Amino acid sequence: MRQIRIIDKRTGKDLVSSGRLADNFWTRLRGLIGRPPLKSGEGLLIRPSNSVHCFFMSYPIDVIYVSREDVVLKIDEAMKPWRIGMPVSGARYVIEIPAGEAARRDVQPGDALEVIGQE
After folding, report:
1. CA–CA separation, 44 vs 65, rounded Å?
2. Would the pTM count as exceeding 0.85?
3. What is the distance between the alpha carbons of residues 91 and 49, in angstroms, rounded to a whole number?
4. N or C, fewer C-beta in 10 Å, the chain?
C-alpha cells in the first residue's frame, strides 16, 4: 500500500501523518482487518468507498466520510467492532483513524482536506 499524508486545511495540521492508501479490491477488502490498532497520526484512506464495516476487527475507530472535492461530510466517532457504517451520500472515500482522534484533532464536517502521496 502507498504511504500518504492528510492535512486539514482549516487547522493547517496533519490529520494523518503516516497513512496508507487502500485503492484496489484486495487492499480495500482487507482494510484494517487483522492489523494492530492504529496509533495517533496513523490512518487508512479507502477509495472509492461511501461506507465501511468493522467486521473481524477488535478495536473501535473513527471513520471520516469525504466528498470528491475533499470535504469532510460526516464523522462516525468510535465505531465499534462488528458494526456497519451507513452509506453517506456524496462520499467518495473514507479515512479510518484511531478512536477519539477526530475530536483530538478538531476535525469537523465542512473541513477541506489535502491528501499528499495518493497519485
Report:
1. 12
2. yes
3. 7
4. C
Q: Which domains does the chain carry?
A: 2-116 (2.60.120.1140)
Report which secondary-structure segment, H or E, holds 72.
strand 72-79
- Going by C-alpha positions, the residue among 52, 48, 62 that lies closest to residue 86 is 52
Closest CA to 62 of 34, 38, 29, 82: 38
In the chain, the amino acid numbered 70 is: D
Q: Which of 1, 58, 7, 62 is nearest to 33 (CA)?
A: 58
Q: Could you read off the pLDDT of 3-54 as tens digits, one per residue?
A: 999 999 999 999 999 999 999 999 998 899 889 999 999 999 999 999 999 9
pLDDT in tens, 50-103: 999 999 999 999 999 999 999 999 999 999 999 999 999 999 999 999 999 999
The per-residue pLDDT of the chain, averaged, comes to 94
Compute the distance between CA of residue 3 and CA of residue 52 in angstroms, rounded to an integer: 21
